[in-house]
């Protein structure tokens, strides 16, 4: 039995609430159980210097965790002068994941910055960030279309992410902190709405895992992603 009493293929309760930020061009408050992340999308009229003259835009991300998002207070990374290696890894993951489903040429020479700020952490903050950032980005592009900044929505597909792992010998979906901290194998999957794999991260915390176990985790992830994509569709549906 999982600590949360969930079935092996059961997600935590997931909510995606768009339009939560008054000033951002796009926003989403995403919750995976007790993990909550505020995702905002900000339009910048100039893209990176290295893309100047290419006609292409860019989508990038920044990730941070509030000091009391965890059981004990953690120092703000700004006080140390640079983001940690973990933070840099996660924000690069978020940026890569969203760019995989965006027509950068359709943005023009502009940049969208996705800020993912963890309000409360209980496992799966990076996967929640990717899933919520897609909703924020969709809202930003809709905002741009409504003002004739772009003529078409540059999003080519959905993308979402979910964690899986082997806990007490059983492959399970969407690990919370209690499971993640004791998992024998920990993996994160980023998958598009059409089923394309964007990123797979898998680590054996104890004994190595088998190919059969990897495929079992992938099957769980695909089922979870299908549910998350349905929730994204509901979140961005016209009101």
TrEMBL record:
PROSITE patterns: RIBONUCLEASE_PH. Residues 10-138, 159-222 form the Exoribonuclease phosphorolytic domain. Signal peptide: none annotated. Keywords: Nucleotidyltransferase, RNA-binding, rRNA processing, Transferase, tRNA processing, tRNA-binding. Phosphate binds at residues 86, 124-126. It is an enzyme of class 2 (transferase). Its EC number is 2.7.7.56. Gene3D superfamilies: GHMP Kinase, N-terminal domain (3.30.230.70). The keyword Chaperone does not apply. SUPFAM superfamilies: Ribonuclease PH domain 2-like, Ribosomal protein S5 domain 2-like. One of its GO terms (biological process) is rRNA 3'-end processing. HAMAP family: RNase_PH. Homohexameric ring arranged as a trimer of dimers. Belongs to the RNase PH family. Phosphorolytic 3'-5' exoribonuclease that plays an important role in tRNA 3'-end maturation. Removes nucleotide residues following the 3'-CCA terminus of tRNAs; can also add nucleotides to the ends of RNA molecules by using nucleoside diphosphates as substrates, but this may not be physiologically important. Probably plays a role in initiation of 16S rRNA degradation (leading to ribosome degradation) during starvation. This is Ribonuclease PH. It comes from Salinarimonas soli.
